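ok trying again, last paste got cut off:
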Amino acid sequence: MEARVRVADPPVTIRVADERDVTALAGLRRAWLEERTGAPVEDPGFEATFAQWWRVEQPRRTFWLAEVGSERSGWTAVGSINVVEIVHMPRPGARGGRIGHVGNAFVLASFADRGLPGALLSAVIEHARTRRYRRLLLAPTAASTPFYLRQGFVPAGNSLLALDPSTLAPPAAEPHPAAERPR
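nice, full thing came through this time. structure:
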């Protein structure tokens, strides 16, 4: 799925990313952190770690890549977004259904005010319609919340709970049941 979207000059192409785009996506992820910290981040193994993560996530996650350029001059990645497909377990009398969790939306600062964030999100929304998702969910940052509200997202209530397993004490070791049997 590819769309040529004129969000500014130069025109931007938005398409579903594939394995050839792993390096570009890793570069955008690095740029995301560097824009936020205001400094380069030294991590020489990051690209390999990202590629490994990509291979694990690829079966359940769809990525979109926004690029400027042309076949002749080459392409430069300027933004990306992805959605994780969550398939609910079916129950008797009903099918399971699917939802999408939108994540990792990022556009280089120099392209952020050119309509590109909305164009990337539109690609995700069209994907959700095609895949017949019941809903799209996301956990926006405080800064991005107004953007998503303008795009039609609504607060989902206070029903989301989270747990960091590392904060819990491990359970006490219990003897194996067979070890307690009388002989």
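cool. The two ends are 68 Å apart (CA to CA). The mean pLDDT is 88.
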